[in-house]
Amino acid sequence: MASVGQLDFRAFVDGRTTKVAIETEGRQDVHAYAYVSDRNTRSAFNQGKAVEYAVKHAVRLLRTVGKGELLGSTVKVGPRQLPRVHDIARQCADTLGIETPTVHIRNSPVLNAMTSGTNDDAFIIIHSSLVDALSDDELLSVIGHECGHIHNEHVVYLTTLHMLRMMAARFIPAPLLQPAMYALSAWSRRAEITCDRAGLLCSKDLGVSESALAKLALGSAKLWDDFDMEVFLEQYDELKEELGKIAEAGASHPWIPKRIKALRAFSASQLYRTHIGLEGGTTMDEVDDAVHGIIRVTG
């Protein structure tokens, strides 16, 4: 992990740039695919002192982690090391118009991937079990999702949420950190919707992106041949009726059935259909209105 230096939060907010635009509905917008609630929440963060304070201190803590821990415990991907994974990351980066990110493979039986660092110095960690469980096309969707975090400048907030949770578990009573953690968790669930869309833009195949998400829930390669996606999504209807859905309020990700349903709404958009060479489709406003109802925690 390269040294990130000290973050000037206001310069971070004011000095951000974009590299490539996606044309949609007659305008050029590099982040046109982003979930509007993700955008609006990040805009509020830029004005919020509590989150700004948490970000500054989390990045300072990140500096103490050190490059050695990451390089000593993972395998860094590159043109000469695991080039197949590197090529997938490069393809995702090209789709979204960002630099090819640094990717590390971590030995872990838990199916997971994450992005950390800062917006200017981000890296992706992929667990080895996830690579084993997914096809290359599915891995394209997952790495595309993580690249979406970088493209939408989520990384510093994701890092802050991770650091706050680590501090709550080890050093500081959780109630002292709860306001910032709750705000960041609520935003994170919205950010995941944006990045699921980024993964689909990279894979260009709804079935592939759906299966990549479903395998995170199932976890077993042996059971996959008997897995029924539509039956799995019926769990969403049960979920709406259960008080247990309130537990999602503290989660960093929406429940996976919700994410798949939200992704299906995006796949019907004019933006996505144009991206894969088709005509017609719904506006992003219509997509986001549908997604609001899918991912809300209560009601």
Biggest sheet: strands side by side, in what order? 3-4-6-5
Instruction: State the total count of DSSP E strands.
Output: 6
**Overall spatial form:** globular
How many DSSP H or I helices?
14
Along the chain, the helix and strand elements come as HEEHHHEHEEEHHHHHHHHH
- Computed structural class: alpha+beta
Separation of the first and last Cα atoms: 42 Å
Give average pLDDT, whole number. 81
Give the amount of beta strand, in percent.
Answer: 5-15%
Main β-sheet: number of strands, strand sense, barrel status?
A: 4 strands, mixed
Domain count, please report it.
Answer: 1
Low-pLDDT segments, ≥5 res: 1-22
Radius of gyration: 19 Å
* Helical amount: 55-70%
Overview of the structural elements:
- The structure is a single chain.
- This protein is of the alpha+beta class and 299 residues long.
- It contains 14 helices and six strands.
- The protein has helices spanning 9-14, 36-45, 49-63, 67-73, 83-96, 128-133, 136-151, 155-170, 174-203, 206-218, 229-239, 256-267, 270-275, 284-295; strands spanning 22-24, 27-29, 74-76, 102-106, 113-118, 121-127.
- Strands 3-4-6-5 form a four-stranded mixed beta sheet. Strands 1-2 form a two-stranded antiparallel sheet.
- Strand 1 (22-24) and strand 2 form a beta hairpin.
- The longest helix is centred in the middle third of the chain and has 30 residues, at 174-203.
- It is globular.
